[in-house]
Predict the structure of Potassium transporter KefA.
Amino acid sequence: MKFLHIDTYIDTVLEKLILLALATVLFYIFYRILKVIIRHLFDNYSRINVADNARILTLSRLISSIFQYVTVFLYIYTILAIFGLPVARLLTGAGIIGVALGFAGRDLMSDIINGFFIIVEHQVNVGDTVYFKNLEVTGKVSVIGIRSLTLTSATGSLIFVPNRHIMALANLSRMTNTLYLDVPVTLDTVDQLKDRMMTVNQTNPNAEFVGMITIDYTVYLRSKLTGDYADISTQQAKIMTQYYEKND
């Protein structure tokens, strides 16, 4: 009888080990298939929306991480069920622990939730210049994370802004700005410079010739430049260089 109990015990252990191995293989295959599907879907979408590659990559990683955690949770639940452990009681205990940890991790959850909506709602892109009114911080977005935004300031330093602190975000790159390009002229050069400015403006559709103005007894020819906040300074320098290069 003693050997019979041992044989039964061995059979039970072998059965559970076989079920464990089978569950492990199935969950691994399930996770790999999901990962391939997610990557395939986002790869196709990124080909259609090339400008959104940074946001698409971040969103893809987020969804992959969510599926990974869900798969691990279900796998652990299945293992506990295979070995006959009281899953309901364990989940109840885990719920109590989760409530205790929830108070400590609410900032983390706030970061993740805010980060999710920042990514999904397409509030910013990598390369955008943003301003946080409540933090009085301005910088160019270098990384969009699920927990924080990484900015590069005008001095080149990195600024890490937790998503929970993002309350009043102004995306300066989506604002239209106007600058005036003034070139001093004399009576002898006014006609020649006007022709040159008109020629340069033809190759720069955002620049428009305005006319002649006088500031403090100095005569200028003026063009108006309209463009995005993030790029307009670069355009201004380029066009002014072209004005003066053509004047040499």
Summary: The beta strands are 129-132, 137-144, 148-152, 158-162, 169-171, 176-184, 207-215, 218-228. The CA atoms of residues 55 and 122 lie 8 Å apart. The chain has six helices and eight strands. The helical segments are 2-48, 53-82, 87-104, 106-120, 190-202, 232-245.
